[in-house]
Design brief:
Elements (H helix, E strand, L loop, with lengths): L1 H12 L5 H5 L4 H14 L6 E4 L11 E4 L7 E7 L6 H16 L7 E8 L8 E3 L2 E3 L1 H15 L8 E8 L10
Parallel strand pairs: 3-4, 4-7
Antiparallel strand pairs: 1-2, 2-3, 5-6
Amino acid sequence: MHRLHDLKSWLEHGNDSPCQTWKRAEGETEMRTLIAGWLNQQCRSQYTTAQEPELANSQRMDISLHNTNVHSPVPIELKLLDKGWSGPKLCERLRNQLVGDYLREESAGCGVMLLVWQGKNPDKRWTINGHRVGLNELASALKLYWQSIAHEFTGVEAIEVVVIDLTMRATVSNS
C-alpha cells in the first residue's frame, strides 16, 4: 500500500509527474503496464509484480504482488474510470471479481481496487449504496460498501480502494 500511495502522490502532486503521458493511455492493458513497471522499479526487493497471472479457474488478476513471506499474492484490480464504469458495476467487480474470485483461496486475505481517472468526463458521478458521489468521495464510498458486505467474506482481512486522479497535477493554485 505504501508504494501505491507513493505512486498516487507522485502522479497527482509530483513536479516531474508524467500524468499528461499517463492520461493518454488508451486502455487498461497500457495502464496496467505503466503501473506494474513503476511498482517493479520501486519494489526495494520486498515483492515481485506479475501482470495477468492465470488462476485455476482461468481468470486473470490485473496485477498481483508476491512476497516469499506471504503465502498468497495480493491482487490489484485495475479499472479505468473513464471507460464508463457505473457505481453498481464497480461494486459488483469489487464483490465478485476481487473478493469472490481472486481472494477465495483460504490463505488470501488482502486485495486492492485501483481506480484511475483520466478526466474525460469532469462531471461524472457514481451511485454507491444509493448515494451519488464524485471522484473525491469514490474511494471512501467503495470502502463503506466493502464494510457493509465484509461479514460475508470472513477470510478476507482487508480491501483497500485507491483512486488516482491524473487531472490533479494540471490544476493551478489560485491562493
